[in-house]
From TrEMBL:
This is Probable transcriptional regulatory protein FXB40_10225. Belongs to the TACO1 family. Residues 81-236 form the TACO1/YebC-like second and third domain. One of its GO terms (cellular component) is cytosol. It is found in: Cytoplasm. Its main location: cytoplasm. GO terms for molecular function: DNA binding. The keyword Cell inner membrane does not apply. SUPFAM superfamilies: YebC-like. InterPro entries: Integrase-like_N, TACO1_YebC-like_2nd/3rd_dom, TACO1_YebC_N, Transcrip_reg_TACO1-like, Transcrip_reg_TACO1-like_dom3, YebC-like. Keywords: Cytoplasm, DNA-binding, Transcription, Transcription regulation. Pfam families: TACO1_YebC_N, Transcrip_reg. It comes from Bradyrhizobium rifense. It comes from the Bacteria.
Length: 248
């Protein structure tokens, strides 16, 4: 069944659903602060912080907000956030991974469990679905930076594992160990990417019917709208017709 991969589609939906910029900026600032606390506050030496700042810029987050989030880490201000990964199955047995940063583990677990239950899925133990995903680095560029061959050549030279070029742009994948070096080499050649991050990439995607797909997209939206949730990954594929219907 030809269709839209949820993996490629979900972040666009997330951007649309988080229309309230203050909520989105809050999530981005939280990631910046945590990344700066865990490593050095210098983004050139801290790949996670660099990725967080790139994500913030993509959403037009003001420079002052970014700098304030870094200063918060330096001054050891604000709440201490726990990083938690939740894993479970959504409607149709689709595998879902949820990454959260929370200052209240009980609240986060209770809310996320209820989202899964209401959607007809169930939350599992850590490790229950992550074996169906690869932890990998991704570096994304717009199509305009270079043609497919030029990007492929540069990615191979930089040590990337895979390149996927299409209408939406260029996606370069690299191992968790090599991701930082690949990103640096590509940035030197093509400039700052539109995204550079460590993600959970599904090894295979499962095509679902439109009824199941609609339930899954609603679950994705519920999860993404929760203040504690930073990222959501799943391994389903939906039809182009459903994407159009849901406004994706």
């Amino acid at each position: 069944m030809a269709g839209h991969s949820q993996f490629k589609n979900i972040m666009h939906r997330k951007g649309r659903q988080d229309a309230q910029k203050s909520k989105l900026f809050g999530k981005l600032a939280r990631e910046i602060t945590v990344a700066a606390k865990l490593g050095t506050p210098d983004p050139n030496m801290n790949p996670r912080l660099r990725a967080a700042i790139i994500a913030a810029r993509q959403e037009n987050m003001p420079k002052d907000n970014i700098e304030r989030a870094i200063k918060k880490a330096l001054g050891n201000e604000g709440e201490n956030y726990d990083e938690i990964r939740y894993e479970g199955y959504g409607p149709g047995g689709v595998a879902v991974i949820v990454e959260a940063l929370t200052d209240n583990r009980n609240r986060a677990a209770s809310d996320i469990r209820s989202f899964f239950t209401k959607s007809g899925g169930n939350l599992g133990e850590t490790g229950s679905v992550s074996f169906m995903f690869d932890r990998t680095g991704i570096i994304e560029y717009d199509r305009s930076v270079a043609d497919d061959d030029a990007v492929l050549d540069a990615a191979i030279e930089a040590g990337a594992d895979d390149v996927v070029s299409g209408e939406g742009g260029h996606e370069i994948y690299a191992s968790t160990e090599g991701y930082r070096d690949v990103a640096k080499a590509l940035e030197a050649k093509f400039g700052e990417p539109r995204k550079a991050a460590l993600i959970w990439k599904p090894q295979n995607t499962v095509a679902v019917d439109d009824e199941t797909g609609e339930k899954l997209l609603k679950l994705m939206d519920l999860l993404n709208e929760h203040d504690d949730v930073q990222n959501v990954y799943a391994n389903f594929e939906i039809s182009d017709a459903l994407v159009a219907k849901m406004g994706g």
